[in-house]
Design goal:
The chain has a domain of 202 residues: 7 Propeller (Methylamine Dehydrogenase, Chain H). The strands form twelve sheets. It has a four-stranded antiparallel beta sheet with strand order 1-28-27-26, with no helix packed on it. A four-stranded antiparallel beta sheet has the order 2-3-4-5, with no helix packed on it. It is elongated and about 95 Å long. It has three helices and 47 strands. The chain is mainly beta.
């Protein structure tokens, strides 16, 4: 049902958005995913994308998966040991491990490993591991190129061996500069870890008291301290590392902006932010976000989202972020996905901008002849097999589009009375089977084998089927032009005409001509035709058809995740349950 809005307007939308979208990179109209979109809170700490294409948001009130339309929230349940370990997910402790296909995250209670395919958690909790009390003070997670898992904690660097579930701790206890006036234990409070771009043995470690170079093979730790006589404390509280191909690392601080460290000569070269020369930077603290190119990184500050030129050490601001009240804010984290979309984690939600300016990838079916127009009427995405099924009017059957190979394939339909194959709707029965509705037949499609067979449904005259929807207890409702509303017995393939609906329209001397249906949470079947709309209540066996002042000619239905059914008519949207 969620695809009905697309069903009747896909050609128009593609035409309009192709005109206004391609070639334009705009920072004026971001897509915002926040509490109104289904997140447990507006506060987004971090973002990642998994191998299925789902976006995951780490928030202060739980984990959220977003599929582009709807959200699924995961929160800690003290009574369920298989739930996520906690609700506050730390900004730097949210990591997609492409090797194990897991999301690794840390909360206030411990470490969680999520299998995003099975949606199952494995937890390591501090309360269950007395010898590992650092589990509730993890600030960052990092998996290096050799698949070693590292944790940054209040107690130093921790290496976790996933094979035998053991931990090894590394602390800095070496010498400090004479003028070092920061508490020395802060050098073992670790907020970020990254691997050197060229040397596999070297990890760079951001601490609240300076920068550490860690040789993971020898266990040696080398300490670096940025001397600024006026702001020693503030400018050495490092909490984020961006490793750049130019072999510089760009360090984030709490309030002092960005610090640049050259790993080739192992010297600090620049600070950029509130305590820096104003001709080089901006007036507010700068947060380094993402590598953009060989000579650029994305940065954020209260002055705006911008691009830092690593050759010229200068910033070009591209967009000031403001909330509904006009208050400026900055992004804390960001990623660029494989579609060249930039995702920003902020206190007001996740902000999405299209960097490429290309809003559509276009794919075309080779024409057959002038009689086959391939007008899209329905679609269904099989996310498990990465196949998109497309139904057409005046087509030859079902077209499937392989999302991996970007190729079209055809599944022909057997003909009954109608010469053309008009596919009106797909209705999933389970993860392996779809019902396919044409004007004069209902088919069962097996997704794994792509095998389709007709149900050979019974009818006395051409029914002109138009839509399908699931009801209670696995029942299937089918609408049509001639009979109005019928109920399908999946076991026998028999259709039962709902005589109450048919007789209602017969007594008014009009054809039912029902175009679309939706079933609400009370099992009432809502319908629309070319005159108005109404619903049939199977429990009471009565029909309510809106006429007079309530009459509306609806263009389409849309049923959202909250079971609200939306109807679009000529002037505006309306809604009903």
């Amino acid at each position: 049902m969620g695809y009905k809005l697309i069903k009747y307007s896909i050609l128009f939308l593609l035409f309009i958005f192709t005109i206004i979208g391609i070639g334009q990179t705009s920072f004026d109209n971001p897509q915002i995913i926040n509490a109104k979109s289904g997140l447990p809170t507006d506060r987004v700490n971090s973002i990642l994308k998994d191998d299925q294409g789902f976006m995951w948001f780490a928030t202060s009130k739980g984990l959220c998966r977003w599929d582009g339309i709807s959200t699924k929230v995961f929160q800690h349940d003290p009574a369920d040991s298989n739930s996520i370990s906690g609700n506050f997910i730390t900004r730097n402790a949210f990591f997609w491990d492409g090797n194990t296909k897991q999301i690794i995250m840390c909360t206030e209670n411990g470490l969680s490993f999520l299998n995003p395919h099975k949606l199952t958690f494995k937890n390591l909790l501090s309360q269950n591991n007395p010898s590992a009390d650092f589990l509730n003070s993890i600030h960052c997670v990092f998996v290096d190129r050799q698949e070693k898992l590292w944790l940054g904690t209040d107690y130093g660097i921790i290496r976790y061996n996933r094979k035998d579930s053991t931990f090894k701790t590394f602390n800095y206890s070496g010498n400090f500069p004479e003028n070092y006036d920061i508490s020395k234990n802060r050098t073992n409070i670790i907020f970020d870890i990254k691997q050197d771009v060229t040397k596999d043995s070297i990890l760079w470690v951001a601490t609240l008291g300076g920068l550490i170079k860690f040789n993971k093979n020898s266990g040696g730790l080398l300490f670096f301290y940025y001397e600024n006589k006026n702001y020693n404390n503030e400018i050495n509280t490092f909490n984020k590392i961006i490793v750049h191909p130019n072999r510089n690392i760009y360090l984030g601080t709490w309030n002092s902006g960005m610090v640049v460290f050259n790993t080739k000569n192992e010297q600090f070269e620049l600070s950029c932010g509130a305590f820096s020369p104003k001709d080089k930077c901006v007036s507010s603290p700068v947060v380094s976000l993402i590598v953009k190119s060989k000579s650029e990184i994305w940065i954020s500050s209260l002055d705006g989202l911008g691009i830092f030129n690593t050759s010229q050490n200068s910033i070009k601001l591209v967009k000031t972020l403001t909330n509904a009240s006009g208050r400026r804010f900055s992004a804390d984290m960001g990623i660029i996905d494989d579609k060249q979309m930039i995702w920003l984690a902020t206190e007001y939600g996740a902000y999405l901008y299209n960097l490429s300016g290309n809003y559509f990838d276009n794919y075309f079916i080779d024409p057959v002849d002038e009689n086959h127009w391939f007008l899209p009427s329905s679609l269904y995405e099989d996310t498990k097999r990465e196949i998109l099924y497309l139904g057409y009017l005046r087509g030859q059957g079902i077209n499937l589009f392989d999302l991996k190979t970007k190729t079209f394939h055809e599944i022909p339909l057997s003909k009954r009375l109608v010469r053309e194959s008009m596919v009106w709707e797909f209705l999933p029965l389970n993860e392996n089977n779809l019902l396919v509705l044409s004007s004069d037949e209902i088919y069962k499609l097996t997704l794994d084998r792509k095998n389709i067979v007709p149900l050979n449904v019974n009818f006395s005259k051409l029914p002109g089927f138009t839509d399908m929807a699931k009801g209670d207890n696995g029942s299937v409702w089918v609408s049509g032009i001639a009979e109005g509303l019928v109920n399908l017995n999946l076991r026998t393939g028999q259709l039962t005409i709902i005589s109450t609906v048919k007789m209602y329209f017969k007594n008014k001397n009009i054809q039912p001509n029902i175009k679309e249906i939706a079933v609400d949470y009370q099992n009432r079947v809502w319908f629309r035709n070319d005159r108005s709309y109404g619903f049939y209540d199977p429990d009471k066996n009565n029909i309510h058809y809106f006429e007079g002042e309530m009459k509306k000619i609806l263009f389409c239905f849309y049923q959202d995740a909250s079971d609200t059914i939306w109807g679009r008519y000529i002037q505006k949207w309306t809604w009903f349950y």
